[in-house]
From TrEMBL:
Belongs to the guanylate kinase family. The keyword Transferase applies. It is an enzyme of class 2 (transferase). SMART domains: GuKc. It is found in: Cytoplasm. The keyword Disulfide bond does not apply. GO terms for molecular function: ATP binding; GMP kinase activity. It catalyses: GMP + ATP = GDP + ADP. Essential for recycling GMP and indirectly, cGMP. Its EC number is 2.7.4.8. HAMAP family: Guanylate_kinase. This is Guanylate kinase. Its main location: cytoplasm.
Length: 218
């Protein structure tokens, strides 16, 4: 231990935050999310429900909860989704239960959702717990190269996603942070820096007043 280190037990408990990543399809959210989660035990992924069919290699309950349109409609009706939207012709939504449980336990939650979902989260009581990051590709040609290179979708799906890219990007001004994912290592380091700083914000330090009073013997 260096002379500047302090035991974790001296830290006041913290409010969990909702860390949202949005981008046009193919800019790199999933890639960055996976890497962010790997090295950070305090943040957990919100696994969305979707009516989209699984891509090869995608695992139910890990990448998404793959559900039928009827099941999705039931989830909407029963208020089981924190937000939901139709994206590229399929429905996607955030199951409410796991997010609320994680936040309650003081964990942060990572969301890979589009601008419609982000707007909906912004309307909830949890808006002050929201940290919104928009990820831009270096340019549209590179975005198309990435969608092609990923090779998970047929060409008509890629064309459809490229056609929506400008509209998605037009929502950049609704986000707190804008990153350009030209270099994944750099972008990941920027995401980690944002998360670190946001965790230290005064409003997230529960019991801070008591902690300081205790320190000052008041
Ligand atoms: N900085 C980068 N440089 C080059 N390729 C990248 C970079 N970041 C991600 N990629 C690649 O781009 C492709 C798309 O990335 P990814 O699937 O993470 O995008 P996404 O934003 O999650 O897309 P979607 O919204 O469709 O889920 C993948 O093949 C990934 O390996
Ligand atoms: N509003 C929401 N958008 C979501 C959710 N889960 C994923 N998404 C967005 O959908 C597109 C397409 O995803 P893909 O896996 O089919 O490539 C992408 O922009 C995601 O961010 C959600 O729960 N709510």
């Amino acid at each position: 231990m260096t002379e500047f280190a302090r035991p974790a037990s001296h830290r006041p408990p913290r409010r969990g935050l909702m860390f949202v990543l949005s981008s046009p399809s193919g800019a790199g959210k999933t890639t960055l999310s996976r890497r962010l989660l790997e090295g950070d035990g305090d943040i957990t992924l919100s696994v969305s429900a979707t009516t989209r069919p699984p891509r090869p290699g995608e695992v139910d309950g890990k990448d998404y909860w793959f559900v039928s349109p009827d099941r999705f409609a039931d989830m909407v009706r029963d208020d089981q989704l924190l937000e939901w939207a139709t994206v590229f012709g399929h429905r996607y939504g955030t199951p409410r239960g796991p997010v609320e449980a994680a936040l309650h336990e003081g964990h942060d939650v990572l969301f890979d959702i589009d601008w419609q979902g982000t707007q909906q989260l912004q309307q909830t009581d949890a808006a002050s717990d929201l940290v919104r990051v928009f990820i831009l590709p270096p340019d549209l040609a590179e975005l198309e190269r990435r969608l092609m290179g990923r090779a998970t979708d047929p060409i008509d799906v890629i064309t459809g996603r490229m056609a929506r890219a400008r509209d998605e990007i037009s929502h950049w001004g609704e986000y707190d942070y804008i990153l350009v994912n030209d270099n994944a290592d750099l972008c990941l380091a920027e995401l980690r820096a944002i998360l670190k700083a946001e965790r230290l914000r005064r409003k997230r330090q529960l019991g801070l007043a008591d902690f300081v009073r205790g320190m000052l013997g008041q």
